[in-house]
Amino acid sequence: MINRDTLDEIQEMNMTYLLLAKQLLSDDRAAAIFRLGISEDVADYIQSLPSRKLVQIARSSQVICALRFSEVRELEVTLATRRDHIETPSHQAILLASKLANAVEQ
Coiled coil located at which positions (predicted)? Predict the structure, then answer.
């Protein structure tokens, strides 16, 4: 059984994620869909939700966001040295885009 503190943290993280997702979608929809790894339908749904419904979803005991990295190399890129810092965001985007392309092909 999950303890109350952990449940509170999950729910807070869920709410933060949903609010961030909604803001990113408002700022730049295409980039947000890519960054969040969500479909157009999910993007539409999140954008259409009133605050009351966002809170309702956030109160789930399940973590609603997922770690997008499935390989150690993807995580290592985020730990690049300062010298590589400029290349890191581009490299991460390339890795994520190639994962998306592979998923679409399958």
Answer: none
- Superfamily designation of domain 1-66: Flagellar transcriptional activator FlhD (1.10.4000.10)
Q: In b/e form, how buried is each residue of 9-24, taking b as 16+ CB within 10 angstroms?
A: ebbeebbebbeebbeb
> Crossing angle, helix 4-27 and helix 51-58, to 10 degrees?
140
pLDDT reported for residue 4: 96
Cα dihedral: 46, 47, 51, 54 (round 10): 10
In the structure encoding, which two tokens stand for residue 61, read together? Answer: 């005991």
pLDDT tens, residue by residue, 46-95: 999 999 999 999 999 999 998 888 889 878 877 775 555 555 566 666 66
Query: Which sequence spans correspond to the domains of the chain?
Result: 1-66, 68-106
Token digits of residue 96: 């994520």
Q: What is the DSSP letter of 93?
A: H
